[in-house]
Amino acid sequence: MNRAFHDRLTSYFWSGDAIRSRSVSGIVLTSHIDVPAPPARLLGDWDREIRTRLLLEPGDVEQMPLARTRMRWPDFDLCLRAMHGWTRSLGMQEVLATSDIALMACRGARYHHDGGQYGGAAFCNLFLSEDKGLDVHFPGTGHRIPLTRGTAMVFDTCQPHAVIRRDGSGFQEADFAAGQDLTQLFLTWELPIEEACVAQALGIAFDVDRATARGLDEEQVWVNGSRAAPRPDCGRWEPAVSI
User: Fold this and answer.
1) Does the residue 242 lie in any domain?
2) Mean pLDDT across the stretch 23-42?
3) How much is the pLDDT for 89?
4) Within a domain: residue 19?
5) Distance in angstroms (rounded) separating the CA atoms of residues 28 and 141
6) Whole-structure pTM over 0.85, yes or no?
7) How confident is the prediction for the chain on average, in pLDDT?
8) What's the CA gap between 235 and 40, in Å, rounded?
9) What's the total number of domains in the chain?
10) In a domain? residue 105
11) Residue 121's domain spans which residues?
12) How many Cβ atoms are within 10 Å of 198's Cβ, its own excluded?
């Protein structure tokens, strides 16, 4: 059972040329989508890209070339159609079709939130790799989602999350040592949080702290009234360090 969501989280994000405030959702929408296995040629291409250019270290999350994947995967459009169908079933209409898409690779991921850059968005992810014994963990809500080919999820970018070993309790670099195939590939879309259907699906409330928002000039997340960041190893909130 998920533990109770006690902390009061507030996102301050760019809306046009002004900072706006909103609540942070504890909802994680998830499903398993029937997507075809990537062809061997494409898997080899991904492997070479990761080994020769990305050089992923434990905890790294990096962007991959999407155009080459589209060209070398005849069934790529089947993945898109399946995701469009799922998000429509959530009441999100055609928002996926007009949202930015990217192909990403990760070798695990430290606990983090993305509200310093993507506070105006929700993430929609579709995992393309086979089950390698990894989970996405949301420590603030208790969600722990096994990553297999076809795992799909929509979640608030400001909600702390990590990719960790299924038999682990947090992120440890040693869990992703060299010589182990623990890389996950996934498609990700940025869904505009101010789109009414996205906000409704995640239960977002806007303009929850107008006074603070007026005094800010960058995106950030506050917890219980002050700026905070999750600890990379466990996701526990602590005061953010000013740079």
Assistant:
1) no
2) 96
3) 97
4) no
5) 9
6) yes
7) 94
8) 36
9) 1
10) yes
11) 27-202
12) 25
